[in-house]
Amino acid sequence: MKTNSVNIDRLIQIVTAIAVLIGLGLIVWELQQAKSLAFTQVIHGNVDNLTEGHTSVFGEDLSRVLATACFEPAELDHPGAFVLDAYFQFRLNYVNRLKVQVEQADFDTDWRLVSRQHVQAILSFPQGRRWLNNSNSWLLRRNPELAEFVTSTLAMEVRPCHVSVGTILSLD
């Protein structure tokens, strides 16, 4: 009788241990899911910030400044140059913010792939390449990895801003 009792106790302990391990596995899986969801929310939050930034930081004059910078760069006035500089800084800040968020959360996503479009947006303007080459941005001075990424993008072939606008204007 004692042997049966000992066997039942051992069986209960084994089943309990397996249940605990399965429970721990489920907790780890749920934490990974929560991490993925958090990253998605971060990306959406950044997109919202970018949209709000276009209006709040640059005002209603941004479209005129960007059009002048693209089509008539020699006609860009001093106030427009300040707005364009802020636009470029905003794009670079967005890249840095995404890099920090990915690193802090230890996500598997490569921040460079997501950020490339923002640097390309700067490079699409005639002034953009020169601005990035000569940028005194504190972000680039204090962050060698970001500076290396930006430097690596300078060699990329980027469609000039007037090509995209020309394509839009030629639609039937």
Report on this structure.
80% of the residues lie in helices and 0% in strands. The chain is mainly alpha-helical and 172 residues long. The chain has a domain at 57-169. The model has no long low-confidence stretch (mean pLDDT 81).
Question: Shape from CA axes?
Answer: elongated
Structural class: mainly alpha
Number of strands: 0
Q: What proportion strand?
A: under 5%
Quaternary form: single chain
Question: What is the helix tally?
Answer: 8
Can you summarize the main beta sheet? none
Query: If you compute it from the alpha carbons, what radius of gyration comes out, rounded to the nearest whole angstrom?
Result: 26 Å
Instruction: Give the helix level as a range of percent.
Output: over 70%
Topology:
Elements: H1 2-56, H2 62-71, H3 78-105, H4 111-123, H5 126-133, H6 138-142, H7 144-153, H8 161-169
Helix pairs in contact: 1-3, 2-3, 3-4
Question: What is shown here, in short?
Answer:
This protein is 80% helix and 0% strand.
